[in-house]
């Protein structure tokens, strides 16, 4: 079953939210949310705290599920990836909520880096980057180490391969976490506040690595950040969120220099004054 949204350009979106609802108890976080991300785009979500940005990433990581609703037309909506249902699966010609097995299979194309680097503290840097390659992707140790070597070079940490994470700065740990996510060859990289836990002087290194990743790969990135410098430097489209809805979107230069909506103007004024 193909996604119902067709693009006049004929391009197939990589990620598509089709009228997605998400509630936590009585709190409606996403309300019939529509949006799409094309292959190779680097999209940043900005907006006030609690507006639903992280929830979107968590839905894509399948850490959360779409909330079914009684609306007969949308029933809570569907997330598609590569034009195929992602939050749901097809059964008897109908879309039904996906099983755990289906979700596990589908999310293997998605990598995520979190605010807290979450490296395995008892494993050296190299093994942090090879572990999932060997145990999840089934690669040989030699193959995984060769790939880890390339990626550690990309993030500028070849000389730290034999260190434990505790001996690295926060910025270096985050760069290892980026290498670890990329090692699984994801099509989509989700970045959740990846510079927020870092001292200001370390942020630039992580941003430089992400710019390199953007330039040297065709990976699609979806980022949540409170740092407008990040949105400006790394992304090619910014979505301004409020109350689970997209208020405004556009190229970073347009959103930052000429925001059209009052809510975007107020939000940017507040964050830039911090
Ligand atoms: N597991 C949960 N249970 C209950 N409420 C939740 C849960 N996860 C998120 N929420 C609520 O949903 C709303 C949206 O949260 P979300 O983390 O997506 O916002 P956000 O825009 O990423 O915010 P921030 O910028 O502060 O990270 C918030 O009000 C939050 O408290």
UniProtKB/TrEMBL annotation:
Keyword ATP-binding set for record: yes
Primary subcellular site in the record, as a coarse category: membrane
Compartment annotation: Cell membrane
Domain ABC transporter: 15-268
GO cellular component, one term: plasma membrane
Membrane topology qualifier: Peripheral membrane protein
Domain of life: Bacteria
Family assignment from sequence similarity: Belongs to the ABC transporter superfamily.
Name of this protein: Polar amino acid transport system ATP-binding protein
